[in-house]
């Protein structure tokens, strides 16, 4: 005998509360403002990099170009995430934000590799660099990037999409700082190799952070167990603390967007236990003790629903003969 109980008897998107919606709308505006700032100054930095001959400025401009595109994608992901679930996408569009976060991490990774390649070319064939104009452009770029970072920093840092956007702007800040330091060294000493050296340093820092973002986003896309959740510990907790639960198995834990945890599980109950009461107790325990707000619980008594065999047979004990009357 089995029962299938779906959490809230509704779609995933219907579970979002008003606070979560307001936070998402605010993040959407923050990302759009940062995209406009970044894209606007990127043009000025490209011109500055070409006029001064600075790889640091061109590298930062290239990074800002990918950032403007990435921030635009992040904004669009928030826009799609507001759409309700439908018959084709029953969980809604929340995972689009995770997909964009992964794409952003990949884009940063590729840009960092390009910077390293260009730096190697500059070492082989050094070019003259105009330190004064380079310093002015880099300082203006730093001001713009810091403004973008401040705008984004007030958003939801638990969101992979916002983390990706912040990572892009943080990379721009590091690039601008590197360009400023390189310009000062060139003005003081005339030593132009500092320009590609600092560009590579920034690229290495960006590579590490981009890799971590890609891993986190890929983990969500592959429906891995969310950070902070232990499947075995959850099983033991339910079996030990929910009255009437004999056994918990087939537990699956995942997250749609990296911020909200979900679960499905089978619970075998002791004879005489009210299935509805047990389901409510299990879900309450998952919410309060494990931050799992959306769960589907399948109840079993004398048989496992997935194969129809008696519980005793599953455990290796021969079932008692049943007589037909």
UniProtKB/TrEMBL annotation:
Coiled-coil ranges per UniProt: none
UniProt keyword list: Ion transport, Membrane, Transmembrane, Transmembrane helix, Transport, Zinc, Zinc transport
Locations listed in the record: Membrane
GO molecular function, one term: zinc ion transmembrane transporter activity
Main localization of the protein described in the UniProt heading: membrane
Sequence intervals crossing the membrane: 31-51, 57-78, 99-120, 132-153, 165-191, 197-214
Pfam annotation, one family: ZT_dimer
Cellular component terms per the entry's GO annotation: plasma membrane
Residue ranges annotated for the Cation efflux protein cytoplasmic domain, each copy included: 228-300
Annotated membrane topology: Multi-pass membrane protein
SUPFAM superfamilies: Cation efflux protein cytoplasmic domain-like, Cation efflux protein transmembrane domain-like
Domain Cation efflux protein transmembrane: start-end pairs: 31-222
Family: Belongs to the cation diffusion facilitator (CDF) transporter (TC 2.A.4) family. SLC30A subfamily.
Name of this chain's protein: Zinc transporter ZitB
């Amino acid at each position: 005998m089995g029962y299938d109980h779906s959490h809230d008897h509704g779609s995933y998107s219907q579970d979002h509360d008003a606070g979560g919606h307001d936070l998402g709308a605010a993040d959407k505006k923050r990302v759009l403002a940062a995209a406009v700032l970044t894209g606007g100054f990127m043009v000025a930095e490209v011109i500055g990099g070409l006029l001064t001959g600075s790889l640091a400025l061109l590298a930062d401009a290239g990074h800002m170009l990918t950032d403007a595109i990435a921030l635009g994608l992040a904004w669009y992901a928030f826009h799609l995430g507001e759409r309700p679930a439908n018959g084709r996408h029953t969980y809604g569009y929340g995972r689009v934000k995770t997909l964009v976060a992964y794409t952003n991490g990949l884009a940063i990774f590729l840009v960092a590799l390009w910077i390293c390649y260009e730096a190697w070319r500059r070492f082989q064939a050094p070019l003259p660099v105009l330190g004064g104009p380079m310093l002015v452009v880099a300082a203006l770029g730093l001001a713009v990037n810091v403004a973008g970072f401040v705008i984004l920093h007030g958003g939801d840092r638990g969101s992979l999409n916002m983390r990706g956007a912040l990572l892009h702007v943080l990379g721009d800040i590091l690039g601008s700082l590197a360009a400023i330091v390189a310009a000062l060294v060139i003005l003081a000493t005339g030593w132009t190799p500092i320009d590609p050296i600092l560009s590579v340093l920034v690229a290495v820092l960006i590579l590490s952070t981009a890799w971590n973002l890609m891993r986190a986003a890929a983990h969500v896309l592959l429906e891995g167990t969310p950070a902070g959740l232990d499947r075995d510990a959850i099983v033991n907790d339910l079996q030990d603390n929910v009255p009437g639960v004999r056994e918990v198995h087939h537990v699956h834990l995942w997250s749609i967007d990296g911020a909200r945890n979900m679960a499905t599980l089978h619970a075998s109950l002791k004879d005489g236990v009210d299935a509805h009461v047990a389901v409510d107790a299990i879900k309450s325990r998952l919410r309060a003790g494990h931050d799992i707000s959306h769960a589907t619980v399948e109840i079993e008594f004398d048989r496992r629903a997935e194969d129809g065999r008696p519980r005793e047979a599953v455990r290796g004990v021969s079932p008692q003969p049943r007589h037909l009357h």
